[in-house]
Amino acid sequence: DAGVIQSPRHEVTEMGQEVTLRCKPISGHNSLFWYRQTMMRGLELLIYFNNNVPIDDSGMPEDRFSAKMPNASFSTLKIQPSEPRDSAVYFCASTLKVVKYSTDTQYFGPGTRLTVL
Amino acid sequence: AQSVTQPDIHITVSEGASLELRCNYSYGATPYLFWYVQSPGQGLQLLLKYFSGDTLVQGIKGFEAEFKRSQSSFNLRKPSVHWSDAAEYFCAVVRSGTYKYIFGTGTRLKVLA
What we know:
The complex is a heterodimer.
Chain A: E1 5-7, E2 10-13, E3 19-24, E4 31-38, E5 42-50, E6 53-56, E7 65-71, E8 74-79, E9 88-95, E10 107-108, E11 112-116
Chain B: E1 3-5, E2 10-14, E3 19-21, E4 24-26, E5 32-38, E6 44-50, E7 56-58, E8 64-68, E9 73-78, E10 87-94, E11 102-103, E12 107-112
Parallel strand pairs in B: 2-12
Antiparallel strand pairs in B: 1-4, 3-9, 5-6, 5-10, 7-8, 8-9, 10-11, 10-12
């Protein structure tokens, strides 16, 4: 099992540019999460997908942030335009939700370290 | 509202010494509890979890944690620390039947040779 795969691992961009982060969940998992980790705020849930449908995007900080999951094996988190305060490590996690209201272990990817200059 | 407190931001121990990392949670009912470890430049790896049953939970890498309802705690322990255990450790709580993990701020462990 390859685990959750994220790309790129590091991204450096200039303010105002569009940034796209990618995630491939564990095969067979039907729930996907995007998190942001900063020193100031710790780990924050940005958005949660179940069966490719966004269920909770209340953590998305602004309209500049958007996320999609076009199929069960791929998701993107896009920031447009990017700002220096978006600099953080972005994690993707997936889980197999066997029962709709069950609580399942989340498996995290290695993260993407984003630096916005 | 649920919350998780990890009182120790940094802990330093000598290799071979015992370790206890504290985690306190705030939640009305029995929560689901997790400990994750994050090595530098890596994602979070699950060490162990508590859903129900035996309050002493065994995890990977020789770690264990004990759920104490009366103290609202879920402390992580290891009897003998190895240099490779140096990392950041996160406690997380989630209400049963939901997906939203609430993470603590983490405890960074340094191991002295």
